[in-house]
Design goal:
CATH architecture of the largest domain: 3-Layer(aba) Sandwich
Strand content: 15-25%
Radius of gyration: 28 Å
Strand order of the largest sheet: 3-4-5-2-6-7-1-8
Number of domains: 2
Number of helices: 9
Largest sheet: 8 strands, mixed
Length: about 325
């Protein structure tokens, strides 16, 4: 195998110069307590670096080890995980790299295989460890398949681990590793926030905080499982902030009406711009109706007002 694995990069230190963040350090020793463990965090929380470092440590500690570094698709594996691995790996510990087989061999005889998780050959592997990058994208059955491949006989501690952004509460990761009522024995995780990573470029964290709403920030900055697909329309609604007894239909202020042209029901929301606030002053709900009936209802209720209507074009 040709030794052409490493590349120069100013962004990621080599393994021999790597100084872990506190949460990364906690993750790197989790195999003392757990057989299966994960590093869950927001964007830029140092997850992939931590997973690659752990893989290199296991391959270095146990000569002749065989480890799998995997991701859901090969482009993701090649462009992110393998690139980080290359940047971390010192030339001095590499015996060779096969680009054809996507396999790295270390001078101590350990081998690290890089595979996407649609590879049929996964079923024939004998492993000392596996690492799944961005496990939230991976099917639960793939995880069980990899667990079944941890059978390399001479390795005293065989483990599986992952790094990932959080998902929603239906995720197998949440069920197996986090939920206290369903969590498995010897399964553990560490959580990390984007804000924990002091190595990020200046302004990166501040830009994310400014750009993301509360729900997205909870998941992709603070590294917490939550629901993004339920309650999406009204999740920022607050009775304290958004309901007031002062709101009423005011004279001499134009009406802005949002219109949904369904047949059953025909519906509209009636609003007015009052200062820097948008007041919702009325609603119209007409079952089994049509556009003509809605027009008559609007003119009956709001005679004399200037009216702007914003219909749903679909």
């Amino acid at each position: 195998m040709k030794n052409s694995f490493t590349i120069d990069s100013p962004s990621t230190p080599k393994l021999d110069r790597f100084v872990p963040l506190p949460k990364q350090k906690e993750f790197l020793i989790m195999d003392r307590r757990f057989d299966f463990f994960g590093y869950i965090g927001g964007w830029g929380a140092g997850k992939t670096i931590a997973g690659c470092v752990k893989s290199l440590l296991l391959a270095s500690m146990y000569p002749g080890n065989v480890g799998l570094v995997a991701r859901n698709s090969f482009p993701q594996l090649r462009d992110t995980t393998m690139r980080t691995f290359r940047e971390l790996t010192p030339d001095s510990i590499i015996k060779g790299y096969s680009k054809t087989d996507t396999m790295l061999e270390l001078v101590n005889g350990s081998v690290i295989l890089f595979r996407h998780l649609g590879d049929e050959n996964l079923k024939s592997l004998n492993l000392g460890f596996f690492y799944i990058d961005e496990a939230v994208d991976v099917d639960e059955q793939i995880f069980y398949l990899l667990v079944s491949r941890l059978r390399l006989p001479h390795i005293p501690k065989r483990v599986g681990f992952f790094t990932t952004n959080p998902g929603d509460f239906s995720s197998w990761i949440y069920r197996l590793f986090i939920n206290p009522t369903t969590k498995k024995e010897r399964f553990g995780v560490v959580f990390s926030s984007t804000l924990d990573n002091t190595y990020l470029p200046e302004g990166y964290r501040e830009n994310l905080l400014a750009a993301l709403d509360d729900k997205y920030a909870e998941r992709y900055i603070h590294g917490k499982f939550n629901e993004l697909t339920t309650g999406r329309v009204y999740f920022e609604f607050s009775m304290e902030k958004n309901v007031s007894s002062e709101v009423r239909l005011l004279p001499d202020i134009p009406l802005h009406i949002g219109m949904d042209f369904n047949v059953n029901p025909m519906a509209a929301t009636v609003t007015q711009d009052v200062g820097d606030e948008l007041w919702v002053v009325d609603e119209i709900y007409l079952p089994n109706s049509n556009s003509w009936e809605m027009a008559r209802e609007i003119t009956k209720r709001f005679k004399g007002y200037t009216i702007f209507i914003y219909p749903d074009a679909t």
